[in-house]
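Illustration: Ribonuclease A-domain domain-containing protein.
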Amino acid sequence: MQLGEASSADSWTDSLGETEAPGQPAMKTRLGPGLLLLIFLLPACLTAAGRETPYEKFQRQHVDTSGSWEPDPNRYCNLMMPRRNMTVSFCKDLNSFVHGALAMITAVCGSGGTWHHEDFYYSNSPFQVTDCQTTGASRWPRCIYRGDICSKRICVACKNGQPVHFARPSVCGGP
Ligand SMILES: *[C@@H]1O[C@H](CO)[C@@H](O)[C@H](O)[C@H]1NC(C)=O
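Result:
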């Protein structure tokens, strides 16, 4: 925070305090910094959420680095889709989670993958992947998923050496 901002903010709380009933100023000065913190941090948090980079979004939607995960793919999807914010304003119909270390998945854009076309790279090795798909009974906000886990090579679009989109294997010429 710059000095100028701090001093103008201080005078603002001071003037607020003066409008209150006498006997309360001690309380006001204690609330002041907390209130200020909230006012400065709240917009910062909102902007941070909105500023999710494409790589961060890819990780949220498609990367599960936890070594052990819910083994029932149906339960896994119904747990993970809301947890990763993909059921917030609609039920995302189809989404794949790749199980593995972020470095291994990111490497598909480099030595771990083979360029296919445009930005798309096909992994040289298979990954464990859980595909989640909404069932016919799924109605937002009650999103219901069927999960399917298998081992397959993954096709991703890369920007600046980082995966930013997950694509069906067929996009990379796979099955
Ligand atoms: C989901 O959204 C909430 C509210 O915007 C946020 O606090 C949380 O970090 C998000 N979760 C993930 C996994 O991004």
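Reading the tokens back as a structure: The chain has two domains: 3-50, 54-172.
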